[in-house]
Amino acid sequence: MSKNNNYKLSADWSIDSHISSLDKYNELYNESIQDPVGFWSRIAKRISWYKPWNKVRDFDFEKAKIKWFENGKLNVSYNCLDRHVESGDGDKTAIIWEGNNPSEDKKFTYTELLFEVKKLANVLKKLGVEKGDRVCIYMQMIPELSIAMLACSRIGAVHSIVFGAFSADSLRDRINDSSCKILITQDTGVRGKKDNIPMKENADSALFDTPSIKSVVVVKRTGVDVNMVEGRDVWWHEEMNIADDRCDPVHMDAEDPLFILYTSGSTGKPKGVLHTTGGYLVYVSFSHHIIFDYKDGDIYWCTADIGWITGHSYIVYGPLSNCATTIMFEGVPNYPDYGRFWDIVDKYEVNQFYTAPTALRALMKEGNSWVKSRNLDSLRILGTVGEPIKEPEWKWYYEIVGKGRCPIIDTWWQTETGGVLITPLPAATPTKPGSATLPFFGIHPVLMSDDGKEIEGNDVQGLLAIKTSWPGQMRTIYGDHQRFIDTYFSQFPGYYFTGDGAKRDGDGYYWITGRVDDVLNISGHRIGTAEVEGAIGKTNGVAEAAVVGFSHDIKGQGMYAFVTLMTGVDSSNKIRENIIQSVVKEIGPHAKPDNIQFSPALPKTRSGKIMRRILRKVAEGDHDNMGDISTLADPLVVANLISDSAQV
Ligand code: WTA
After folding, report:
1. Tens of pLDDT, residues 127-183
2. What distance in angstroms lies between residue 633's CA and the mean position of ligand 1's atoms?
3. Using an 8 Å Cβ cutoff, are 176 and 183 in contact?
């Protein structure tokens, strides 16, 4: 390690690596920026097309018009399955499924997975699903989830996966926003010590008010008795037993939608991020191959949940398009004990391991013996995603988990970007703990000043924007293109604005400083403060709420809610509990506030705008310098907030 805390590359890493040196990275990066059309038309040939495109890219950020590989025809499930079977890799393991209970696991070869996907595609067709229809998937991490995604893509249906911890209300809103025709779910789920997560029951509650849903397909995961609605609900296994196993893939246009995935923004209801077929697949396939330096025979494991973008791109579509062996894990890092991740690494001899900083912090806290008692020699590359990784967990990951042998790949990206945009490459980029380092191929990041000018040079800080389009970029917000323009392209006309702040250091490395909007990142989960405030506001007796983040040792960010009760309503444990229940009902248990402070008034400007800057300081316990509070309608509010915070 050099004095300035840079981690040099080991000579071993560059042997046979796809990008073997910084010079090679620079050479290819420059080409990708100077000649994007030539670059991407070459890269796009890594997947199989029924018909080539006639224009590589066409974009106009002012109008938020983005097209890649126009008029090219392809099918995602063909690329992820048939193609590998046809080229002789049918017996290769596609998915290793590791159950919550360590004694449960299952493997699917590419041939077996294709067989299941074709049958399910026929089940969906029988239920009336046609090209372009939306299919909602609400499941835990079971193999049928991946099968469902691939079956949708085979027949051109657009999947919308709702993370399994979301509540019935959230599920209902997402189904209605994109008028899904079918819901695929499971009886109950198991995760960690929870052995009866009521998936079907939640689905039933959601479906009271979802007129577009015609049928529900239910996977029997636990065998618990669940209510089946006659004429609407069918069992997965019964339908699969009688389904035909022949199903030709539909020829999709490169710009046909592949999926919708809802994500939280700073205002309003969650946005249905829409990704399309050709550009997305090219981008996730290429980035998975390069960033994880994936080679034939490697065992690759991303611990994310498929309910989030990381799982879509880097458990399912990226790895399977590359004929990789990808692990799907149903459980959690601390069940049955804190050694579970490392047991799985040893059990399957995992080569690439990709997880979130929050998981590393939680494991680090438990001491090194859980790691040291395992072998872990198979590990070659260690990735992280979802939130800034700080130096302590970075070093722990590098030294204790990787034993100083494995590069740490800190990947920065978003639901909207489809794939990783800023990242080290394992054998090319010397790393620095906490920096996502340099842009991936074809990505042109810029830092903007508040007044909309590009900040040139190094050793600078600003708002992170991207200057030109890349194939994996989202194309619209489902059903609301104007909101797409307003959210991402209006702050800096001609640029995609990420919502993150960043620094660029003396070496041109990027350091992501976090969201600059009202989006929280709690344990790597994106949560909009407006959504939580709305949920708290529905509690009886609550007049108003404001939610902010604060630094949290394990979660990265914790959630702090300031709540004003209606006149005459007293604060009590009961109302506190009701507030939490309201958040669980409206959003889900992952969005529960860590702290609730009742305050008679919130700090507001004379025009009635809540000054969140002040609330953030109170939440952090940083009372010394409140900054300029002269614009507050009632400056005394601040003193009350500080004194009340002592009781939280
Ligand atoms: C944050 C997850 C720092 C960032 C793939 C971004 C990160 C938001 C990193 C997107 C990273 C993601 N370092 N921050 N390596 N990766 N983020 O949509 O604030 O769930 O805007 O996508 O997570 O979260 P999302």
Report:
1. 999 999 999 999 999 999 999 999 999 999 999 999 999 999 999 999 999 999 999
2. 36
3. no
Q: Please name the amino acid found at residue 364.
A: M
Which residue has the least CA distance to atom 6 on ligand 1?
Answer: 414
- Which of 192, 165, 145 has its CA nearest to residue 306? 145
Q: Which atom of ligand 1 is nearest to the CA of 499?
A: 21
b/e sequence 593-614, b meaning 16+ C-beta within 10 Å: bbebbbbeebbbeeeeebbbeb
Q: Which of 306, 414, 422, 511 to mutate to test the pocket of ligand 1 (most atoms within 8 A of CB)?
A: 414
Residue 1: predicted pLDDT: 37
Pair 481, 496: CB distance under 8 Å = no
Q: What is the pLDDT of residues 369-396, one digit of tens each?
A: 999 999 999 999 999 999 999 999 999 9
User: What is the model's pLDDT at position 13?
Assistant: 74
Other C-beta atoms closer than 10 Å to the C-beta of 498 total: 24
Atom of ligand 1 nearest to the CA of 263: 18
**Residue 424 falls in which region: left (phi positive, over 0), alpha (psi -120 to 50) or beta:** beta
What span, in angstroms and rounded, lies between the C-alpha atoms of 338 and 306? 22
Give me 552's structure tokens.
């949290």
- For the chain (648 residues), the mean pLDDT of every run of 10, in chain order, is 62 82 97 98 98 98 97 98 98 98 98 98 98 98 98 98 97 98 98 96 98 98 98 98 98 98 88 98 98 97 98 98 98 98 98 97 97 97 96 97 96 98 97 97 98 97 98 98 97 97 98 94 93 96 96 95 96 96 96 96 91 94 86 89 88
- Which two three-digit tokens encode residue 521? 């990142």
Task: Judge if the beta carbon of residue 388 lies within 6 A of ligand 1.
Answer: yes
CA distance 266 to 527: 9
For ligand 1, say whether the CB of 263 is within 6 Å of any of its atoms. Answer: yes
Q: State the closest ligand 1 atom to the C-alpha of 415, by its place in the atom list counted from 1.
A: 18
Chain mean position to CA 531: 18
The Cα 575–Cα 533 span in angstroms is 15
Inter-helix orientation angle 199-206/168-177, to 10°: 50
Per the listing, tokens 């080569």 go with 351
